[in-house]
Design a protein that fits this description.
Elements: H1 2-13, E1 16-22, E2 37-48, E3 53-56, H2 61-74, E4 79-89, H3 97-100, E5 101-113
Antiparallel strand pairs: 1-2, 2-3, 2-5, 4-5
Length: about 110
């Protein structure tokens, strides 16, 4: 039980950035041409005051976009096209405590071109 509690606590105390890519497109292309792959990047962090001020990790759009482009550059991308951006502020998860300290997650999905 202590290991599970430690794992859950550590997930909320550090910045977590996860990037995934999908290569299979069933030979379909987009108006821009056929992308090299599709990528999604998820950032999770702890923010203060209704999820506004980052404390542990930064899950704002700017930092998530930075992680998205770093992962794309690492995989030799020359051009990206963002498809979707979603930010969730988990303010109502444990009120009133989560009004002060709340987890925030931001996900960006996009096409990656060579």
């Amino acid at each position: 039980m202590n290991k599970i509690s430690f794992l859950i606590l550590s997930l909320f105390l550090i910045n977590c950035s996860i990037s995934n890519k999908a290569i299979r497109t069933n030979s379909l292309s987009t108006p821009e041409g056929k992308p090299k792959y599709y990528q999604s990047t998820l950032n999770v962090g702890i923010h203060l005051v209704f999820g506004i001020y980052p404390v542990w990790g930064d899950a704002n759009f700017e930092e998530t976009l930075n992680q998205f482009t770093l992962y794309a550059q690492k995989n030799k991308a020359s051009k990206i096209r963002l498809i979707q951006k979603e930010t969730t502020k988990w303010v109502y998860i444990l009120p009133p405590l989560s009004f002060l300290v709340s987890p925030v997650s931001t996900e960006i999905v996009g096409e990656i071109y060579e």
